[in-house]
Amino acid sequence: MTVHLLRIATRSSAQARTQAEVIAAAIEAGHPGWRAELVFVDTLGDQRQDVPLHTIGGQGVFVKEVQRAVLDGQADLAVHSAKDLPSQPADGLSIAAFTERRDPRDALVGSTLDGLRLGATVATGSVRRRAQLHALRPDLNFVELRGNIHTRLSKVPDDGAIVMAVAALEILGLTGRIAQHMDPDAMVPAVGQGCVAVECRSNDATTMAALAIIDHAPTRRAVTAERAFLAELGSGCSLPIGAHVSNGHLTAFLANDNGRVLQTTVRLDHDWVTTAVETARALHAEILR
Question: Given this model, what pLDDT does residue 46 score?
């Protein structure tokens, strides 16, 4: 039997590597005679862990080099956390699969929200999480947090907490560290949070067809609407933005540098993308007033 080799570009962090290994196993199980191997790529976000994400480009800093490996022919597909993908597609690449979503919620590690003393320190590198927690607890003190999952878990402030994505802890078997799962209505997740996106070259029909077995239609529909909301705002994670689709409803969050916070939940009718775009326009117009 002829073996078809599929090269998977991914970051080398434990989370990214494990996500890619799950994708590789699913492809090999669904396509006998295919073999997948991982191609590790360092991204700007991995290299520059000394500065806040939003100062080096925000969304996209963990994906561009991985995408380039596919475009340059060093790999056949790229595996990303969907929340890291810019809302505008990369030229020459297509998102061939959105895998079934894991738990999309944020979580506190180190303490529950009510358990944090007045003025306690919370570490997070996300401007969205800071804005949402500030709205819930204006007394909290926020500090920067960078690094891989295990590094971040080692940096829980004394008598404080850090904020993590539940899905990241799930995939590494570390959910026992969670002190509190945050309700998505209280902390609206990032666009695509909990989902893995897989890209391949747009003209690679063979790989695109092979990836159909891991594409989860309900997740694709939900994340596509969330990404449409983000694309309409024209921003990545440099602004506090959240959007989450669940049970046919879109919950959207937007804040500005002055501390103004807007949040709404709308019912998604037949055209989810159009509703998401209209919601983004309405929130943007309101926050500019």
Answer: 54
Q: How far apart are alpha carbons 226 and 266 in whole angstroms?
A: 12
Element (H, E) at 5: strand 4-10
DSSP 45-105: HHH--SS-GGGTTSTTTTTHHHHHHHHTTS-SEEEEEGGGS-SSPPTTEEEEEEPPP----
Rounded to 5°, the CA angle 253-48-140 comes to 45
Would you tell me how many other CB atoms lie within 10 Å of the CB of residue 141? 12
- Using N-to-C axis directions, what is the helix angle for 217-233 and 272-287, rounded to 10°? 30
Let me know: does 91 contact 73? Beta carbons within 8 Å: no
CA distance 28 to 79: 15
DSSP β-ladder status, 93-98 and 196-201: antiparallel
Tokens coding 170: 């799930």
- In tens, the pLDDT along 24-67 reads 999 999 999 999 999 999 766 555 554 455 544 555 667 889 99
Which of 84, 103, 106, 204 is the catalytic position? 84
Domains detected in the chain: 1-98+195-215 (3.40.190.10), 106-181 (3.40.190.10), 216-289 (3.30.160.40)
Alpha carbon distances (Å) from 74 to 63, 86, 154, 163, 205: 15, 22, 34, 35, 17
Please say if 103 is a catalytic residue.
Answer: no
CB neighbour class for 280 (10 Å; exposed up to 12, middle 13-18, buried from 19): buried
pLDDT at 236: 47
